[in-house]
Amino acid sequence: MKEVVQLTEDWGLRHGERLLSAQVPGCVHTDLLAAGLIPDPFLGVNEPEVAWVGRRAWTYVRDVAATDTTEEVHERTDLVFDGLDTAATVTLDGRELGRTRNMHRHHRFDVTGHHGLLKVDFASAYEEAAAVRALTGERPNVYPEPFQYIRKMACSFGWDWGPTLVTAGIWRPVRLERWSTARLAGVRPLVTVDDFTGRVEVRVDIERTEQGTGRSLAVRATVAGVEAHAVVDGTRAVLTLDVPDISLWWPRGYGAQPLYDLDVALAEDGPEARPLDSWRRRIGFRDVVLDRSEDEHGTGFTLIVNGARVFVRGVNWIPDDVFPSRVTPERYRTRLRQTAEAGVDLVRIWGGGIYEDDAFYDVCDELGLMVWQDFLFACAAYPEEQPLRGEVEAEARDNVVRLMPHPSLVLWNGNNENLWGFRDWDWESGLAGDSWGGGYYLDLLPRVVAELDPTRPYTAGSPWSGSWDHHPNDPAHGTYHSWEVWNRRDYAEYRDSVPRFVSEFGWQAPPAMATLRRALPGERLAPDSSGMLHHQKAEDGNGKLNRGVERHFVLPEDDFDRWHYLTQVVQARAIATGIEHWRSHWPVCAGTVVWQINDCWPVSSWAAIDGDGRLKPVYHELRRVYADRLLVLQPGTDGLVLAVVNQAAEPWQAPVKLRRMRADGTEVARLVLNAAVTARSVHRQSVPEELVPDEQSGKEFLVADCDDLRALRVPVPDKDFAYPVPHYEVAVEYSVSGDAGSVDVVVTARTLVRDLLLQADRLGPDAVCDSGLRTLLPGERARLRVTGAAGVEVNAVRAALYCVEPA
Q1: Is there a contact between 448 and 472 (Cβ–Cβ < 8 Å)?
Q2: Pick from 56, 594, 677, 709: CA 20 to 30 A from residue 405's CA?
Q3: End-to-end CA distance of the chain
Q4: 227 among known catalytic residues
């Protein structure tokens, strides 16, 4: 049987004359940090001080003993790297094994009978990129860094939310594999469903030793008690398993996520059937179709899972750390559980990052989080010449085969914004016929997916209208990225159109206060302080934040705490405005994918969970607007509209209480509307004229309540509304259940209190509140559960409470 020896210990990193202890998997930056040789680039303005790390060569070394590579019972020993970042030369005892130039591939070298000093020499990624650019010529991109010339995590070169920390190192596991006769070189399970019978077509690739050539082999596959066998004389086999009465895997909110162990075993054929190799993965049975048919509204983009048409409640995912080797399975589970608890059912892995570790997809399988997987191309024209073209195909084949067992994976996507960039960002004329990546997205990648994984849909890009007959970012056709609003317009303008599928949109805000204090130690915080500006990577980011606030509020002067609160309010309202509008137009609009759920370091960004893992107010707003049931009040072409959204599997009899109110809390009119909403549908109706608040007065608003849900419509900007001076009472109730770290904060409103927010991290860096922005009418009470704040006093709670105040 094959033996595996992990090579995670006893590595060294050469730094000048010194040999530092190195962690594998890891990277140069983390090793230098551990040795105290560089400052933490996440803190203050340290990032530029470590820029030199990415511009020089590095060497990892380790001894490989003779007993590691020569065993009498094995005919072959392979050295296997699951990930080398990026341009590396691998030698063993002075013998060159090979050269690599792709962070996103695995590499295997025959080291049978060889031992001694194992060296991995990494060239600077900048030098590798320059060498490739000299071969292919210049190509445009959106950032002044050469990431399109090297198959490496693009965002390590910096992005509008990320630092420039260009990594190198053995970033995924490395091991020795000893084997004889034959091994399983690849296993591809094609999983389909016909009624409640599941079919698994297992395609097996086999590698043989020289001694094993010509021997008869036996392959066995089993799943759910069903078994299939094949005798193999060559290097390929196909086994088909028909599994009756399977339980379907569903996205979260649509059903359960049953998973089945699929086992494949390779043995010598014959009476003794000596085992040679084995493979095990969990699979799920489900059917996925992407409906891109034309209709009276344009060209659709609707995911259909097991026959159910799904409105996607999605988020975009970036690497959770700019040093991805630091992201453990436990961290994946924490972040993805937070994502699911926000009501999310799809995670899009964005094309400037990485193909995540299997641990990521395992958790998505368990939680019912659908995965939209970009191939790794983003915001640039990519040369299609060698040496890149061969690397791109090998990378795609590696990762399609690795990831296809996961039932959560529902869509392959060719790139992020490159088709749009070619047509709209002055690339086309400047390229003058040079290659730019179109051949990857429209030819190579769909061919690879069709060959290796025909059970899943492929789309050429995001955004993409489906063909060159329409603009690549046409909201009426396919996927759409909505960035004019954040960059130039008010968030209310999300309501101006109904795209078929919004795969990117977002609004910025700073991270939590405790995150800022940790990341900017000793700094007097201000929007334009040195650390705040350094941790704001977007072009004119603070200008856009300020303009977003000024459209609705008086911009605070010399009051950072107030500015921080208002930017959080605007971010939450912006995201809610878009999602409420687009959800209310299902099935014309079939999904929203918010930019973004997470951060890779402490930064002002579009994230809902900041770089220290703290939840921003927009996270709680996501949880509200992505819930199965939602009330929406919004202006329409024919007046004010009430939309009752029901994405649950059961119909909803919704008695909606509408109250037209004045700012002082008095009631002008009320009405109860009984809305009957079928499952997975939306009910829309006009609000009666007598309930519509008077826009001219600046003193009226409308409230809609049903069950525990509320929608609010204030028809004028907050700075023009006659808010009373907020008055509320605060009480702290300590837990009697033995949970000494939890308290209940009870707030009782005596006036209208708009967008009340308890910033729990101001009570302590580990404190968490279960609620975000809350609006209370006079006499209403809110109970907020706070964990991690034992012994907190009421005055401290009051200081951590913020709400909208009169202009």
Answers
A1: no
A2: 594
A3: 75
A4: no
